[in-house]
Structure formats: C-alpha cells, structure tokens
Amino acid sequence: MLWRRKRGKSCSCWICLEEGKLDSNWYVHKCGCNLQVHKSCYIQWIYSSGLNELNQINDTFDLAGYVPAMETAVKATLLNKIDRHPAFHQNSHLWMTTGIIRTLPVPLKIVRVPIYMMDTILRGNQLLGPELPLSFVSAQCPQCKKELNLCDLGTSPSFATRILDIAYFLKRSMGFAGMMVSLIAVPLNATFFLMKLSLFQLRCLFPESALRILLDIPTSDAMDIYTDSSAGIQSIPTISKLIMIWMPMYVANFQIDIPFSYLLKPVWLLLIANQVNKYNDTTIGRTLRKVLSSTFVISFLYDIIVDSLTSYLFYKPKATSLLFSTNQRFVRLKESENNGRYFDYSNVIIKHDIYQSIFDSVAWPFLGNFTGKSLLKSLVWAKRHSKLSWFPSVYKSDIDQLVFNFIGFGTVGIVYKAIHLFITHLRWKEMKQDQKSLFDIIGQPSYVFYRDPTIMREIDATVKIDT
Fold first, then answer.
1. Segments forming the whole domain that contains residue 358
2. 164 within domain boundaries
3. Does 328 reside within a domain?
4. Which superkingdom, per the lineage (predicted)?
5. Consecutive H or E run containing 452
6. Is residue 65 in a domain?
7. Considering the entire predicted model, what is its pTM?
8. Between the CA of residue 362 and those of 194, 259, 356, what are the distances in Å?
9. Quick count: other Cβ atoms within 10 Å of Cβ 107?
10. Interhelix angle for 159-205 vs 238-252, to 10°?
C-alpha cells in the first residue's frame, strides 16, 4: 500500500559481519564501493588504527610515558574529523584553508608547516587556532584505498544541520573574501584602501549635506580626488583625516574587540562634535548632533546591558561546557580568576575574526543604508495613502534620510546579533551531540588543556579528567 512504511535496505557490516536494516546507525562508503559498516564499529576501527600507528612510534622512540596524552591526541583528531563544521571556532588562515591547500603542489604543502609555526608565534594570543597539518587519523576504503569523509559519522543530517551548512558556507565565504581583499588591496597601498573604505562607509551613513559638515569640504566628490594620491591625502584637513581613518575601526569595533576600543567611540564622536559645532545654527547640523548623541547613548547602553547579559548568561555557560578539538588536543575554557577583566564569550563557539570584519565593514553600512532607505520610502508611501492625522510626517529629505540611515544601521546590527545567537545555539547542540556519540564509543579523553580566556594562556596544562 502507498501508506505502508518503506522497508530499510538490508546491510552487512564489513567489520563485525552483522546484518541489519539501513538506518542512521549505519555508514555507507561514498567512494563508489558502496560498502556498509556500523558507525560504532567504524569509529572503533579508526581509533584502533590510530593507536596502532602511535604504538609503532612508541616502539621506535620509547615514548611510554606519553601514551595517555597520545591516545587523547587520537581522540581529538577523530572528533575534528567527524565534525561537519570544524572551522566555526577557528581563526581564518590563508595557508590552512583546505580548498586552497588541496590545489597546491607538494613543495608548497611542506612550506605551510613553518609558515603556520611563524603565524603561531606572531599571533600566539589566539584562543583557538587553525588545525595543524599533522594527523594521526586516516580512513581509507579497504577496497579502493580512497580517503573517506568522516563527517557523516557524527550527528545525522537534520534541518538544523542544513541551517548550519548555510551559515558555515557564508562564514567561510566572507572570511575568504576578506583574505583576498587584504592580500590584494593592503600590499598595494593600505592608506589608499583605508581612505576609500572610510569614504564608502561615510556615504552609506550620512547624506551629502551632512557629509560636507563632517569632512569640512564643499562637496564629498572632492574626496574621491584627494584619496587617489599621497599629496591629496596630505591636503585633507587634520580633523577630517582622523575621522576618515577611525571610521573603519569604529565600524569593526561593533563586531570584534580592538585594543583600547573603550577610547575609540568617545574620541571619534568628539572629533565629529568639533566639526558639527561649527554648523550648529543650521537644521542639518542640529539634527546631526542629536542623531550622533542618541547613537552614542544607545550603543553604550547596548554594550553594557544587552551584550554583557547575553555574554554571561547565554554564551559563557555554553562556551565553558564544551571541549574544543584543536591541534590534536582538547581545550576547555576555564572561568578566569581575574574577575576585573572582561572577555567576549560570544566570539568562541562561532569565531568572528579580522578577515570577516573586512567583509562586514563593507556589507554592514551598505545593508544599513539599503534598510534605512527602504523604511523611509515605505513610510512616505504609507503617509501618502493614509488618512490618519497622527501619522508621522516624513519626507525624502537629507534630515529624514540621515535619521533612517542610522535606524537601518542599527536594525541590521541587531538582526545580525540575533542570527548569531541562534546559530551559536545550534552549533553548541551539534558539538555536544558529536562529543557524546564519540565518547560513548571510545571513552572520555584522559587529558585536557584548560585555558584562561582573559590572560590568553594555558593553565594546568595536563589535568586528568575524572569520568
């Protein structure tokens, strides 16, 4: 009958030779050989193969005292292998991008090891870095000897997995776009790139009449000419130049922590206030001053209330409850004993690095401008077709456009934060399920590296887990 449930396909495990019906507990080789195996049997077989490889190393170099730590390294590597989205909690790194590395010749693949080591030294304060190129775990088909993708050994695909796949693709795409921009634009001339980016951001937020006040110029089109040469940049007034230089950092500070960022917003707004006070007798000048003052107060309250509460009530419990698999070891965040220092726990499970900020610095103002214009056009249309006397009076003027640009900028930021919170929750559940399914088969890790996030160094580096 049509409503009768379709029976599962009969399978035979090539490890334990047990037969059964195909369901979520089975893994089918996707290399073309179509072999079937129990997920639990396959995980145990891969783990045992990794241990055998380590035993050979132990017999050669007499490393008996390091066996428990090496067993943990196999478990950490295996957990990273079955993770569908391992780069979520890792920093972007050009030489460690899997898609790029696979296209490189063997000599360049060898060169990436010292490059990674140098990057670790120069950026050693990273919380969780990219995965090392070394590996104790490999899974080859016993027939064709092709390397298999082990991500299907973890959690079974679901609707939440599909959402994470989309978010994962967008994160890697934004990071890759940011890396390409930094590789192409910055070496040519970082100053020109910074000034052009700042001018684009300012135009997205401020209409022409407000931009003339901020930059103290007769027309913003003149800045296109000034920013094309070093002599032109030198001719820009000092205050205007500082406003333009600090603008990209001001936008990036909403997403990542920048050193001395607590001084960035007030100093940048003081520079703008110095420009606005010269035109306080104009309508656009008074409106600009009110908008910027309101923006500073709202962003300040948002930082100390909303961001702090979500970080410590939502992100912190989730981040400290996970074991992170990175560099063939397990890392767990430990609550800092230094309570005077603040740490942004929202940037742990879903890492937002500098390369994504380069992409966001272009996309966020553009989307904010688009949202603000759309809201303004919608209200103007509604007012025109509404007979309600209390409907707000809005027009397509520079004053209204200025207000709605900032409303759109804030709306996009709030929507992004909400999406980030939702994706973080899905990712946390996925990591918990992966760890449970793996440790139920091969056991808990023997050693873990505890890390204090506020001082960015490891403490109690080899603490045995009591389980």
1. 159-464
2. yes
3. yes
4. Eukaryota
5. strand 447-452
6. no
7. 0.82
8. 11, 21, 10
9. 7
10. 170
